[in-house]
């Protein structure tokens, strides 16, 4: 069975990160903390990012060391924490992640895509 290409996983991570940001557009912390549906939507997106990162590193192990600026361990750890402890136990972490780490990830992914498009 053949693995998926590197671009597939990068696309999946970028889509999930963009979705997470879209879900919280216009929200402040208080409105996010009061909105279970948005919490679960963002949590799902974060899990999707972690799963795609894990698969990418599994199928393309050279990519992680080539891009140490991406927080590979944190992406996978957040996904595992959400799955094992639930959304409500991690709601503050989810808010912080979607507000700070996800925008940083989107910038990094765009930079990688631009670099790859230029021809590595």
Q: What value does the average pLDDT take?
A: 91
* Portion of residues within helices: over 70%
Order of helices and strands: HHHHHH
Residue windows where pLDDT falls under 50 for at least 5 positions: none
Number of domain modules = 1
Query: Which descriptor suits the 3D outline?
Result: globular
Give the terminus-to-terminus CA distance: 27 Å
Keywords:
single chain, 120 residues, mainly alpha, 6 helices
Give an overview in words.
This protein has one domain (6-118). It contains six helices and no strands. The model has no long low-confidence stretch (mean pLDDT 91). The two termini are 27 Å apart. The protein is globular, with a radius of gyration of 15 Å. It has helices at 6-23, 29-33, 36-59, 63-66, 72-85, 91-118. Helices cover 78% and strands 0% of the residues. With 120 residues, it is mainly alpha-helical. Helix 1 packs antiparallel against helix 3 (36-59) and helix 3 crosses helix 5 (72-85). The longest helix has 28 residues, at 91-118.
Short recap of the structure:
With 120 residues, the chain is an all-alpha fold. The protein contains 6 helices and no strands.
Task: Record the SSE blueprint.
Elements: H1 6-23, H2 29-33, H3 36-59, H4 63-66, H5 72-85, H6 91-118
Helix pairs in contact: 1-3, 1-6, 3-5, 3-6
